[in-house]
């Protein structure tokens, strides 16, 4: 394919503060991209050239939609504040890569290659995304690894984008890649390009709320102050109340990605048994797995860890085309308790408390809260204090909804899908759970220098799930309110 010169054709798009923050955080060690690893099974009766043909179709598809045609602007005001510029032509030969494992490729070999790819920063001279198509897996399988910078899309938006590429019809062939199809029509409608000097929407909303408060003091107290108080005290755990651990050290640019797949029905049954939620079971499993892992390396603290749970504030009919719509809730992770039932009770009570407190923050006040809890993390990284001071929290754990029904790519069935996200100085581990059909797919992203053999954590989480099953197997499910 002939590479034509890329040039901007529209007005620059100024990044909101939350999106810009991901660029400010980035360094050789702090890689601010996320990834989606999807494993497919080749359609029955197709030739071994199926994957090669798929790659060629991906490369021949013209990039025509946001955010895939956006590149960082490096001139004018873009030198002062991060800006996107739209480019006419994107070199798909650069963005779509093709590699193969020595046949028959194993999960371990795939994990090593994915970890290597995840360790490579995205080139800011290009739009900040790539796709690696990996063949050579056993059982007629191949993998697609998509990488995208967090400034372009948060985890929920990334999953929606990827899902929009797939089809629920196994006979649907020749589906256009997501950079041709664009955003899902209901969730992401084209937005007008901002023309203001700086698109600081979140700050403007916050300042506007405070300005209204000068003439409406009661409303200011009702909206702004509770949000700031919640940010200062935490939803269910105090900021900077977390113990110092090996999870919170300075990191390098080397990554290790480990994955595990479990039955979602198992998590649902356990949630019913404990009168909790699937997310309660996820946090309990992670607490037990982390307790085992930290004990194994003689690094278990005597106090509970603190987890930070990303909470999506993106509405189902959101009109935002790019960027981030997330907030956070901090809850204790009772790794200090040896009794798994006691850990379950602590998690369940803590998440309920966090939800109740976060639900009180509505409207523009959620922006105040989000800025208040995000700014300390950003300042810590900018001042190069990450991993050198008491941690704000110990480990983030996300639970992201994925496709509910079997999905296909040109007739190839989606077998597994995992999402990996960012780590940075002071946060050497990030855990993401993604649901797909009757599966709950765990992904553990870690700095391989700070946390060697993080795949042992994945194994320990499986052991903890089996333990919970044995403890609650004979317990009747709690009644569910209509």
From TrEMBL:
Residues 323-468 form the O-acyltransferase WSD1 C-terminal domain. This is Diacylglycerol O-acyltransferase. GO terms for biological process: biological process involved in interaction with host; glycerol metabolic process; response to hypoxia; response to nitric oxide; triglyceride biosynthetic process. Its EC number is 2.3.1.20. The keyword Acyltransferase applies. PANTHER family: O-ACYLTRANSFERASE (WSD1-LIKE) FAMILY PROTEIN (PTHR31650), WAX ESTER SYNTHASE_DIACYLGLYCEROL ACYLTRANSFERASE 4-RELATED (PTHR31650:SF1). It catalyses: an acyl-CoA + a 1,2-diacyl-sn-glycerol = a triacyl-sn-glycerol + CoA. Pathway: Lipid metabolism; Glycerolipid metabolism; triacylglycerol biosynthesis. It comes from Nocardia terrae.
């Amino acid at each position: 394919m002939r590479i034509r010169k890329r040039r901007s054709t529209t007005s620059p798009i100024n990044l909101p503060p939350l999106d810009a923050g991901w660029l400010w955080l980035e360094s050789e060690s702090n890689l601010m991209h996320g990834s989606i690893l999807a494993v497919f099974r080749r359609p029955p009766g197709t030739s071994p050239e199926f994957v090669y043909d798929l790659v060629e179709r991906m490369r021949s598809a013209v990039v025509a939609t946001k955010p895939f045609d956006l590149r960082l602007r490096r001139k004018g005001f873009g030198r002062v504040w991060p800006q996107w510029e739209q480019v006419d032509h994107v070199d798909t030969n650069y963005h779509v890569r093709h590699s193969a494992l020595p046949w028959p490729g194993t999960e371990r070999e795939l994990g090593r290659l994915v970890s290597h790819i995840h360790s490579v920063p995205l080139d800011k001279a290009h739009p900040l995304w790539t796709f690696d198509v990996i063949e050579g897996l056993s059982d007629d399988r191949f993998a697609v690894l998509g990488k995208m910078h967090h400034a372009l899309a948060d985890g929920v938006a990334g999953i929606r984008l990827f899902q929009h590429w797939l089809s629920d019809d196994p006979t649907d062939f020749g589906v256009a890649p997501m950079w041709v199809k664009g955003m899902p029509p209901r969730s992401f409608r084209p937005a007008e390009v901002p023309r203001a000097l700086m698109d600081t929407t979140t700050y403007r909303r916050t300042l506007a709320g405070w300005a209204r408060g000068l003439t409406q003091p009661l409303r200011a107290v009702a909206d702004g102050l509770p949000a700031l108080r919640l940010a200062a005290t935490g939803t269910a755990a105090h900021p900077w109340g977390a113990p110092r651990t090996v999870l919170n050290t300075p990191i390098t640019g080397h990554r290790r990605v480990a994955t595990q797949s479990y039955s979602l029905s198992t998590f649902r049954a356990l949630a019913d048994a404990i009168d909790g939620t699937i997310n309660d079971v996820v946090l309990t499993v992670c607490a037990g797995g982390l307790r085992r892992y930290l004990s194994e390396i003689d690094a278990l603290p005597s106090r509970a860890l603190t987890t930070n749970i990303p909470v999506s504030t993106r509405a189902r009919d959101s009109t935002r085309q790019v960027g981030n719509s997330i907030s956070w809730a901090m809850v204790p992770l009772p790794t200090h308790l040896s009794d798994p039932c006691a850990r379950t009770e602590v998690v369940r009570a803590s998440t309920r408390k966090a939800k109740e407190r976060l639900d009180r923050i509505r409207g523009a006040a959620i922006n105040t809260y989000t800025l208040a809890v995000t700014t300390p993390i950003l300042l810590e990284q900018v001042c190069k204090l990450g991993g050198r001071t008491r941690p704000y929290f110990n480990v983030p754990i996300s639970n992201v909804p994925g496709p509910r029904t079997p999905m296909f790519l040109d007739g190839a069935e989606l077998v597994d899908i995992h999402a990996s996200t960012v780590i940075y100085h002071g946060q050497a581990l990030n855990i993401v759970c993604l649901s797909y059909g009757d599966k709950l797919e765990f992904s553990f992203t870690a700095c391989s220098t700070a946390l060697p053999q993080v795949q042992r954590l994945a194994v320990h989480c499986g052991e903890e799930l089996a333990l919970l099953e044995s403890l609650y197997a004979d317990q009747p499910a709690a009644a569910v309110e209509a």
